[in-house]
Amino acid sequence: MYSIIKCYLRHILAVCVVSLCVMTGTAASSVKLDVDWPQFMSKQDMVWETLPEYWYESAYMGNGMLGLMIYKEPGQNYIRLETGNCAVHDHRKGKNDLFSIGRLLTGHFALHPKGEILDGKMRVDLWNAETTADIVTTKGKIHLHSFVHSDKMIIVTKSTTEGEEKDFRWEWVPAPSESPRYLFAKGEGNWIKVPEDYPLNPAPEVTGTEKEGMSYQKLQAGGETAVAWKEIVKKGERVLWVNLTHSYPESNAREISRNELEDALRCGYKNLQKTHRQWWNAYYPASFLTLPEGVKENFYWIQMYKLASATRADRALIDCTGPWLTKTPWPNAWWNLNVQLTYWPLNASDRLDLAASLENALYNNVEQLRKNIPEAYRHDALGLGRTSNFYCATEPVGIPGVSKTAEVGLLTWACHNLWLIYRHKMDDALLRDKLFPLLKGAVNYYLHFLQKEEDGKLHLPATYSPEYGSAEDCNFDLSLLRWGCLTLIQSAERLKIDDPLLPKWKTVLEELTPYPMDENGLFIGRNTPYAFSHRHYSHLLAAYPLYTLNKEHPEDVDLIERSLHFWQSKTGAHQGYSLTGASSISSALGKGNDALAYLNKLFGRFLSVNTLYRESGPVIETPLSGAQSIHDMLLQSWGGKIRVFPAVPDAWQDVAFDGLRTEGAFKVSANRKAGKTEFIQVKSLAGEPCILVTDIARPFFKGKRHLEVKQLDEHTYQVDLQKGEEMLVYPEGTSPDLIIRPIQNTSIHCFGKKLKDKK
To answer: What does pTM read for this prediction?
Structure first.
């Protein structure tokens, strides 16, 4: 009896404490963002103190379709302006492999100076998405100013000169239109097997002059690629205008290219630059984040620049290289990790309009997803192979227990990305009409192969765990199947859909075999321990990003920690995303110091001077996932809870962000000084249940009306925040100034090639 009374009194006391903490005024002041955006973004610019060489050093620009890279050709006396267009790819019938439907190179402009190149400088102005370069030669100087227009398919490069360099010349050098994987194999990629029956495309044709011309490439499978250019010389300025166009199945790229070039010329340089800058200047303020560590802050904003350069709502899916294609073994979209990692940062940064390119790729190609699986299963199932073009055409997905590498979980994992987009929007029409049927088709493929064994549990035959190997009861697939069934059940309940498969999904959740594991943590699969170094964290997907294993279940914490540490103990095959994955898993456990330590290893070992990334060939997903790792330190929203500053490392005493977005469609701003949270602002965009997790010891909740707050545990509060309402949360007895400003860090222009990097 005494213990019951004691518990009751403790409960009453807790309620009283909460009541004192949540007294609200009749009005809530909004947080103000005090940022001089042009000045702030100028600190983030990439600056080259010496000329870059190679893809992974270069300046780069893009508009979600066209791309341009600028660097000095190694060992040669010219500046290379490498062009790219995401739409340019082969269309060969038959096998949907990297030699048949891979992306294709277009070519480059070579700037040939009169003198010998001595050195130079370069700068990418992030705020305006423009690149300037000063090239010093034995005959004078060449000043370049380039941009890829934010909307129009136009590349513009303006040049002025000093000394004898007024007569430098441009040369268009078309690239061979063979798969970049083929070209890589003919060079350094001797580990790649080239098909014996790989016929070459016709040679490109070039007409016109250096001042005005056209290059066009016809393809064996139909269609063509055209590059049109024209140089205008006026009052000591030379302006090179370039358009790249691809057409298929029609062969009218040349006509389109001429027309688009002429349209740009009619608009004129000043008008095009104005509209270009307007787009970029409106893009960045969607959200704001500032860090005490300048190198991490620079890195973060470069990733925001990179994302908007790589895709747009109505443009190409981001594949392994974005619009900056080069000779590479990875000339397409990779779905066993790369695409998924690439798109994560768009959610929290509230740049969901860009994420539409992923939605369009999957939602608009459902019939192709059906064709990707064996015919016997197409009546109710969908699938996605490892690599695809922008229309999701892949080689056939394998059959579990039959195929040597049945990599069957990739569409389900892609659906998780779509789920995150939905959760940050909370658009139920999208869930009902698009995501629910797509996820149902992905999960259905699994259901064909589940088998009940003597232990009464459902088991999976051998499937492939990226990129470790095949195993029965593969943890990669068990985690995706669990998440998929749980999400379908929750979605059906939300949408009030009485789906005939509901009982099946519930049975799977109840009877699916547990994750195989031992004292070292999660296995790859049944009878397949993690025995050798593994760059992917596919066997750990349940911990991140699915969170079906998480720190809110005490029994999970030890398992996650053991699994993470054992995975990281075998480092031989690790790559950059092995570290961003470890960082985010650490953040999921609330271990900010560990999260930062892993991220520091990424910076120390894998990042290039321009924040691009190389793994045998160029790929771009890892730095972008690094931006998400930063998000995970500062804000998490899995499991229906908004966790503010869940894993801030001790080194980051001052941190602030404004307008980040969470699951449930909340906009969150927060400020932290001297290791203490000063205030949090939360705005509900959809009216979803609002549960806030904060380290503020005695939080005061303030809204425009009295807010009902229920304390769920020591740090967790449920608030009756309605759609369109916002609240402020701050320590009781304080009066924060409610202004978010950039943190004054000392490091600027951390990226770009520096004199110390000069070979």
So the answer is: 0.95
